[in-house]
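User: My collaborator sent over this chain with a note saying "see what the structure looks like." That's all I know about it. Can you take a look?
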Amino acid sequence: MKQLTKKLKTFFKILICASFSSIQTSIVLESKAEMIANIDATLGIESVGSSSLRILNLNRTVFVGECPGIRNKSAVGYFVDYETPVQEDFAVVLTNFTRGLSPSDPPAVKKDYDSGRASDKIKFKIANKKNKVYLSMQPGINPIKYQIIDETDRKDKKIVKSGVFMLDVKFVDKVITRNKEYDREMGVYYCPLF
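Assistant: Without extra context I'll predict from the sequence alone. Here is the result:
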């Protein structure tokens, strides 16, 4: 009986040590992932409500109740690169290569990068198609290819800088209860659009 107790104590010590080791490993891996995400964090998307150039917060309304649903809203941001300041006749092209978007014709947007300290305003929206008004995004990590272009000579445009950064698209939810309403004229219940 004493040998069994001794073996159980040894087993539990090994189990506890192994548990702490895996916890430490996961902490180290998480901190490495955060460091990788913030490498070259001198460029990205600057937007209201985000503490990082690598995070884009999109507002959405989540309806609960008898008429559930989700309405995604667009967000506004600006491309910034603190190492490559804006300059006259500069433009920036952003292309989204996220899975689920067209690999042969990915969504892209071109904005002036020639005044202030960032590009012109860019609209972002959850979508899976190319659009002229906004840059289509997907929830989660979006690999964004950027090109800063010198267009001083319109016939001979030069790429000043290019690369890829990861933009993490997150949601800020506003939850609203939406129940059916009664239409007296038709004599039926319906879900309101609001």
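A starting point for your reply to your collaborator: The CA atoms of residues 55 and 179 lie 34 Å apart.
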